[in-house]
Amino acid sequence: MALSALGFAYWSAWGWVDGWMFYGVTTLNNIKTHQALGAANNSIGATATYSFGLEALFTFIILVIGTFLIYKWLSKKTYEELSQLIIVAIAGIAVVYVSNSIVNTMKVNWGRFRPYEIKEIVSSTKGTFTNCWHLNGATGHQSFPSGHTIAAAAALFLPFFADRKNLKGQKILAYSGLIFTLLMMAARVRIGAHFLSDTTMSLIIAALVTFVATKAIGYSFIEEDSLN
Q: What is the pTM of this model?
């Protein structure tokens, strides 16, 4: 089971590293060719190539460091605390899966053009602005809602990994997760990859799914009420 878990962790970390490198390479390429930074989201960045070996090495380093830090963290936990963390981890996986599934399904069916797409090809009447409540169908364009924002909003679940008696830790993780999500929203709008309504909808979806999950496991973002 331990080896299987490590293998799954390596595969998951590889996915993160692959995404980082993909967006890093495509963003640098967009800067070099004077294209919109947000173009890294679409097929224009699909031709990006980078070192397979470097990707594998980065993944290994991250996994080793991450495993060591997590081991140091969990080694001090009691059986009760570990049981609580298992419940939180399962709920966290469900939150990420459900919220991402909702956003990805909506992306396909809304078929909304991105801001930079409208700006670049509006002269040919191919890029047409539509309101966020308008479903365009599967056009191949996926601005609404924001995938990056829903990914960043997973940080909203971090407070539940803090000990239920550690109010300071819960507050730090709660505010840090919210600030990180808001910064991601601002960045996606700033580079022309999304409209504000795209990022706002993702935040709403993440907040609702997280809220439902927290009620299911019986925890609060900050457990002040239970300690008064």
A: 0.84
In 3-state terms, what secondary structure has residue 18?
A: helix
Is the bond leading into 159 cis (omega within 30 degrees of zero)? no
Q: How wide is the angle at C-alpha 9 spanned by C-alphas 150 and 210, nearest 5°?
A: 30
Task: Give the residue from 154, 130, 134, 132 showing the smallest Cα distance to 144.
Answer: 132
Exposed (0-12), middle (13-18) or buried (19+): which is 8, by Cβ within 10 Å?
A: exposed
State how far the Cα of 60 lies from the Cα of 168, in Å rounded to an integer: 33
What integer pLDDT is reported at residue 120 of this predicted model?
59
- Residue 204 has which token pair? 């709403």
CA dist 153 and 200 (Å) reads 11
Q: How far apart are CA 132 and CA 143, in angstroms?
A: 10
Is 157 a residue whose pLDDT tops 80? yes
The values of phi and psi at residue 83, to 5°, are -60, -40
Q: How far apart are CA 160 and CA 226, in angstroms?
A: 14
Structure tokens at 24: 């890093």
Tens digit of each residue's pLDDT (9 = 90 or more) over 94-133: 999 999 999 999 999 999 999 988 865 544 545 788 999 9
Residues, the chain, total?
228
